[in-house]
Predict the 3D structure of the following.
Amino acid sequence: MARANHLICSNGPLLDDKGHLREPGYALRPPFDYDHARIAASPLRIKDWDYYLVNDEHRAVALTFSDLSYIGLVSASVLDFDTGAYTTTSELVVLPLGRMGVPASSETGDIVWSNKRCDVRFCHTATGRRLSFGMRDFRDGDDLEVELLLSDEPRDSMVICTPFADDERAFYYNRKVVAMSARGGYRVGAEFYEFGQTNGCSKPNRAFGLLDWGRGVWTYDNVWYWAAAQGEQDGHVVGLNLGYGFGDTAAASENMVFVDGIAHKLGDVDFGIPRTGDEYDYMLPWHMTDDEGRLDLVFYPQIDRVDNIDVAGVVQSLQHQVFGKLSGFVVLDDGERLEIRGLHGSAEHIHNRY
């Protein structure tokens, strides 16, 4: 039996006077106000982050800025789909305790932060979201410089308010904005790449960007599965957001497909990650399906971006973020079958202890 996803129609504070999540469910725009002052849990449990990913047919760049209370993480990745090469470099900040300037809203407020190694500016402008990022000694002594503009924000996005069954003071307030138009590029040393260029081919090569905006209080040990994809399909801008495994999702899943900025809600999904023996084999094709027969996709991996962070055995994050292409179909809310052919995306399996 398919789940009954609860659509949030109210607004106001995210948390009640006891610091509990007021209304689990999902929405298409941020319905609630996020306020640290209402959190009842220890300040050391607050987790706030912004993650941006921009890709075209050939390359991608991912930027993370997070204040996890007792540690901060500023991270960048560049990926080359044609060669399979990638670089991920992270800067850790000790005991930021909410002082890194992460705004309380995904619609207003800027991130402006720097230290001796990194310069970060994620700012709202009249034309969109402007991302400026610099990191010294990013790869083999070369510095990274990123300048991007994300515009044409879609009408709908995925917003979810998730409690945790084992801690009534824990919650997850998350927004995914998928398939914004992207312009700009990055430089690593003498290498420069501009997104959206055809690289000598006649085929259009538009670039798209997404935002994963998360705020909340987590329990210590968590696993999640998340996939996102964005691009053009038969003249339409298509985005996917799929996920499960994190928190108590009884009220709603985060699964949606977006067509020209309009959301179509899906139920529960399974990523169908293949196994070799007892272990996941991330580089074999995945078979993604849902519980209603509306989603049937095969994910063909190209790059497994592995990152393993371990700080004194207390802060641990084992990440498999796999980039590749999706093909298959999704049935929209009106019953139309949307064919997916070679849509660029990523799918991840992450185990965090922090």
User: Anything to note?
Assistant: The CA atoms of residues 143 and 216 lie 32 Å apart. The radius of gyration is 19 Å. The chain has no helices and 26 strands. The mean pLDDT is 95.
